[in-house]
Amino acid sequence: MSVLNISLEPHVLEILTPLPPLLPPEVATKLRPYISQPLPPTIPYPLLQSISQWSRTPAGEAALHSASLEPQSYSMVALLAGSVTSPERKFPAYIPEKSAEEAAALKTAERKAITSLVNALLSIVGSGFATYWAAGRTGWKNEWQVLCSLFVAAVVAISEAVLYLIWDSRRSDARPRRKLKVSAKKRIEGESEVIDASRLEHGIPRGLRQRTLKTSNSVETVS
């Protein structure tokens, strides 16, 4: 499973730079490559999460206060403010779910299509049988009856196919086209959603997509 990366923003780099002497040795070793030149464009989400969890421990709070640093600056909301999730990934375009009206209209169209096909099949079979029966009444031989009924059935089948194609093309033209509300490119370039702070504190949110996080006094939940 690949590690989720977060873009390393300048303000995050500024508050992470004085941390290595204060952090536990294991966390400090992991952090140093991300605050040293050349600076990488991203930083792993689990690393930021471990730093945030450490800042809420008694030892972490004491170490931060001794260095005149604010523990609140290392909450996940502060660390992720203004950052972009997985900027190196390319996500497909987001297609919104169909509305109730669109789903109902689609089901109605499907029922009409099935009804049209059944009617066409009955017309083909009925016309072929009627021709065979009528030809038999005129005294034709069986082979001529069969050929004549097949010919009529083929003509009816072609006519029904043409009529169905015309009906289907008109239905497609009349159907409103749904637009993509959000594209992956737009999500990467700036359209954002705010992630629930409680989820950020305890793990990676479910269904996390590439997004830009905004600093806000109140954090809205993403459903």
UniProtKB/TrEMBL annotation:
Q: Which residues cross the membrane?
A: 113-132, 144-167
Pfam family example for this protein? Vma12
Give the GO biological process terms. vacuolar proton-transporting V-type ATPase complex assembly
What are the protein's UniProt keywords?
Membrane, Transmembrane, Transmembrane helix
Protein name, please? Answer: Endoplasmic reticulum-based factor for assembly of V-ATPase-domain-containing protein
In which organism is this protein found? Mycena metata
Organism phylogeny = Eukaryota, Fungi, Dikarya, Basidiomycota, Agaricomycotina
